[in-house]
Every structure is written in structure tokens, then in C-alpha cells.
Design goal:
The chain is built from 10 helices and 11 strands. It is an alpha/beta fold. It folds into 2 domains: 129 residues, Rossmann fold (3-Layer(aba) Sandwich); 131 residues, NAD(P)-binding Rossmann-like Domain (Rossmann fold). It has a 6-stranded parallel sheet, with helices on both faces. The radius of gyration is 18 Å and the shape is globular.
């Protein structure tokens, strides 16, 4: 028999720190298994799941950009993500592929609960997962995107009161908000940067606002640097990354990760 494994799929994938997290936990627990990174292009997604269905050692996969919504057409059970409309985790259960979303838990782990307004940058799979957590404490959600009409259509199935703004309106979207969340890939390694209008608009936020960037490669993004220059509280992407990995690890390997080693893990991820 081979070695049990799980993996993360996406395109690109070289930046992913998920293998570091899961393999760190596997080693600490003495589990003979591994976690890999696999680049899967959009036109390879169907073939990928066809192959993995027949692999007895495959325990499942995390899913990152650009596949979080596309995979819903390829799984057998998407009930757990029906409301969100995006998945970042797939496991095999009773010979069926089942979709989950652990991003929501990751967002909840990262966000303060002290503000009632949030400017959310992006309208893709990560944004869809974030909105339910944000709505629990912030009824005023402003979505900042390149194309507001397209974003409104994309999120129309979500039963939340959202207001949409284009990047050139960033100062209006961020006016006096208590939090800013980047749920887009902008600013990530090998991706376009956030527009300068968006970075400059951080000064329009409430002075006590937090700025949370889901991007973790690089760890100190231009968004977070700009927020620090404005004196805003900053939250990097590692908190969410580890939080969502916790639930995924339980699905893949059937046990809780050893979170008592979080400080050591964070130092490893930040190095």
C-alpha cells in the first residue's frame, strides 16, 4: 500500500503554505501521511478528480484560486456549501466527493467583533466565504471591486444586504468603516497589485479600524504596510490560513491538529 495523502490544488500553487502547515502537524502527531501541492489548471480540473476518485490513498484536497466555484460542478455532494456557493475543501466519503468550506471558520478566527461596518475587497470564492462571518456583527458590508455590476450579479444569490463600489470610489467605500478585508488575490505574489486608489483610501477609515489581508505571500503586503502607515490595526493572512487548515486537517486525517504548537508553526510560516 502507498502512503495516505491530501493536497492543495490551484493555479498558481507554488506560493501555498498549506503543505508546511499540514506536514508540521502530521510530524508532531507522528502520523505516517503527507500533504502535497498540486498545480491543476482550469482545463485539467475534471481529469484531476477523475484520477483521485480511484486513488485509495487520497484523503482529499484543499482548493484555492481559481477553482473554488468551478469544483461545485464536479462533486457529488455540495449541501454543506450551498449557501456560500464556493468550496475550498473536498473529501471522499462513501465513494462520493463531498465539498466543504473551511474558509468561513478561518475568517471567523481572524476577525475582531468590534465594528459594525466593513469594506470587503473582492467578490470571488474567498469573499463569498467571508460574507456570512462578517454579517454576524457588521450589517453594513461594502463590496469594493473593479466591476460593481459584475460583482452584484455574481453575489446575487447570497441573501445579504451588500453595497457595491468600484475601485475609483474606494474613498467613499471606506469612509468611516470599522474594518477593511482583502478577499481578492490582488497584492499576492505573481498577481497584480491593489490599485493606488484603494491603498490611499485607508486613511478614510475609522482611526480604530482594522485591516485584514487574506493574502499571505508575501506576508507583509502593500495593503498592510499602508494600513500601518495610517496607524490602523493589521491582521495578516496566516491567522485565517491556519484557522481554515485546522478544520480541513480533521476532515483529511480524522484527528485534531496539535494547536499547542501554534507559536512554533507561525515562526516557521513567517520565515
Amino acid at each position: 500500500m502507498g502512503r495516505p495523502y491530501a493536497e492543495v490544488i490551484g493555479d498558481p500553487i507554488a506560493h501555498s503554505k498549506s503543505p508546511v502547515i499540514h506536514n508540521f502537524w502530521l510530524e508532531k502527531l507522528g502520523i505516517d501521511a503527507e500533504y502535497l501541492a498540486c498545480r491543476v489548471r482550469p482545463d485539467e480540473l475534471t481529469e484531476y478528480f477523475t484520477r483521485r476518485r480511484g486513488d485509495a490513498e487520497w484523503r482529499g484536497c484543499n482548493v484555492t484560486i481559481p477553482h473554488k466555484t468551478a469544483i461545485l460542478e464536479l462533486v457529488d455532494d455540495q449541501r454543506a456549501v450551498k449557501e456560500i456557493g464556493a468550496a475550498n475543501c473536498v473529501i471522499r466519503s462513501d465513494n462520493k466527493l463531498v465539498a466543504f468550506n473551511t474558509d468561513t471558520a478561518g475568517v471567523s478566527a481572524a476577525l475582531p467583533r468590534t465594528h459594525d461596518s466593513v469594506c470587503l475587497i473582492g467578490a470571488g470564492g474567498a469573499a463569498r466565504a467571508a460574507i456570512p462571518s462578517i454579517d454576524l456583527f457588521a450589517p453594513d458590508i461594502r463590496v469594493l471591486v473593479r466591476d460593481p455590476a459584475k460583482a452584484a450579479r455574481s453575489l446575487a444569490d447570497l441573501d445579504y444586504d451588500l453595497r457595491f463600489f468600484q475601485f475609483s470610489e474606494a474613498a467613499v467605500a471606506m469612509l468611516a468603516v470599522g474594518g477593511v478585508i482583502n478577499a481578492s488575490p490582488l497584492g499576492m505574489q505573481d498577481q497584480p497589485p491593489l490599485p493606488t486608489d484603494v491603498l490611499a483610501a485607508l486613511s478614510c477609515t475609522d482611526p480604530r479600524a482594522y485591516v485584514f489581508d487574506m493574502v499571505y505571500a508575501p506576508l507583509e503586503t502593500e495593503l498592510l504596510k499602508s494600513a500601518q502607515m495610517c496607524g490602523r490595526e493589521t491582521i495578516d493572512g496566516l491567522i485565517m490560513l491556519v484557522g481554515q487548515a485546522d478544520l480541513a486537517f480533521r476532515q483529511f486525517f480524522g484527528c485534531y491538529p496539535p494547536r499547542e504548537h501554534d507559536a512554533e508553526l507561525r515562526a516557521l510560516l513567517a520565515s
